[in-house]
Amino acid sequence: MLLKSLRPLLIMVLLASFFSCSEDESPEETEGSEIADTYSYLALRNDGTLFTIGDNSGKVVEMGNVPGIEFNTMFNAVTSSDSEIFIYEHRFDPPRGIIYAWDKRSGQTRSAILDYPEQFGDNTALLSLDWDEENQNLVGITRENMEQSNHQKPIMVVRINPENFQITTRDIDLSTKGYENIFSTSLIGQKLYVVASKTERVTEADLLEIELNQNSVKVLPLQGIATGVTNIGNSGGTTALFGFSPVANSSYMAEVRPVIYNIEAGTVTEVSEVPRISSLNFAHKTFYNEEGEEFVELVGANNSKNLLKYNPSTGDQELIKLHNADELSSLISIVAVREL
């Protein structure tokens, strides 16, 4: 395995500046505006470009890039611990997977080409990454023959050491149950929730619950919805997931509705009073701001990009139109937050 440590001065300064904050700092105001931001969100584009987004102003500012990333960030394989953010990029010529780790405080970036165990086939890629706080390692899902569909090749659950990126397998192969695609994942304790489809369509995906300690898999009921749920996230509790349900046969491209999934009851409840919105992409996680106690997601609405905020405790939701957002593209996801 090739390990590299990348320390370009600019990116170190930018990242250190983003993640360091003081209680004495006051909320920023945007130029020409009296709208004050409480939080600044960090968004990552597929080519490694970074942007900050004001939570109230919607102001977008480009702030550099992650060294080494070229084009194909796998957004559902982006996760973070208290100290680092882990990003997976897959390349095809030649086929290889690269994992990056930022240190949130120093700005230092490590990267490594992943060495898969011998039983893995050609062009194996990570489709998901989630940080396991209890075991202090990463949980992922891999797929062989990344470029082929209907391949019926292994889709394996793995653990990855966050220091040396060594991979160990679990005795869980989702392909044996007919699954071919993974869209979104969320880890709660030792239960991995997985949006998995036996086709290429997210609207036909199941919600799975994988018990990591028991190597068991079960399909969860989705009462109250016919098109499934994706882009899931959790707030740290054990009873619910937040996500988005695609709207079938909609004239509004990629239309979705924000929903709450009750894990114990197996029911899906739509978040009310949200205007018509569309998903920018279906294969990632929804970010949760622990300090602000709200989920945040980049969505389309009214021919513009917007920041959707939802507080599960109060039920409050707000749609903030983004400014200077032309460079964001649809291949982008929120990966971090800083309180101002």
TrEMBL record:
Signal peptide: 1-22
Keywords, in A-Z order: Signal
Protein name in the entry: Lipoprotein
